[in-house]
Amino acid sequence: MPESLEVTDPKYLGKYIAVDENFNIICYADTREELIEESNKKRYRITDYAIVYIPKYVEVKGR
Q1: 50 pLDDT band (50/70/90 cuts)?
Q2: In this predicted structure, what is the pLDDT of residue 34?
Q3: Residue-level pLDDT at 19
Q4: Cβ-based neighbour number of residue 26 at 10 Å
Q5: What is the residue-wise DSSP string for 12-45?
Q6: Quick check: 42 and 63 in contact, CB under 8 A?
Q7: In sequence order, which residues have a C-beta less than 8 Å from that of residue 51 and are 6 or more positions away?
Q8: Other beta carbons within 10 Å of 39
Q9: What does the radius of gyration of the chain's CA atoms come to, in whole angstroms?
Q10: How far apart, in Å, are the Cα atoms of 58 and each of 29, 62, 63?
């Protein structure tokens, strides 16, 4: 598992993201509740992913 997560797209800033064990992004949303709802629609269980909040002020790699 990677030790860090690099943000390369500004669309994730200020969002909650669901990442699997390999840090692949499953989905993202404005709130934690919306994120869980969205991942449930995609048939993921809460044990299949971790929830990470990306602050709006994080430096975006590659910009």
Answers
A1: very high
A2: 97
A3: 93
A4: 17
A5: GTTEEEEE-TT--EEEEESSHHHHHHHHHHTT--
A6: no
A7: 16, 17, 18, 32, 35, 36
A8: 20
A9: 12
A10: 17, 13, 12
